[in-house]
Design brief:
2,3-Dihydroxybiphenyl 1,2-Dioxygenase, domain 1, alpha/beta, 2 domains, 132 residues, 4-stranded mixed beta sheet, 3-stranded mixed beta sheet, 7 strands
Length: 132
Amino acid sequence: MTPQLDAIGIVTSDMAASLAFYRRLGIDIPADADAQPHVEATLPNGLRLLWDTEETLRSFDAGWQPPQPGAGRLGLAFLCASPREVDEVYEALVGAGYEGHLKPWDAVWGQRYATVHDPDGGEVSLFAPSAA
């Protein structure tokens, strides 16, 4: 059997804050999940997003330490319906108090692109094919 990517895990210091951020990006997460130590959401394409609190991770990896700010190695990218939606989603997230990292711009590779940080400093890209 060839391994297949099935899930992406996010370790969070504040479950409710992290889930609120991803709900704003359209991820369907039940409201009662905010107080859980582990949460899963299956996306329309079958890929799963998993959230664990730092305490949950330490329950089986006692030496686990969070990465230093700015040391993220993994980013998530959300496809938007249009360049305008990239701008709108970016502004909505920044307006809600999330940290904007790269304001929307027209990238040389033919996409409208922007980056925000989730509550734990994770990089979240927003993109759409550039207008013709």
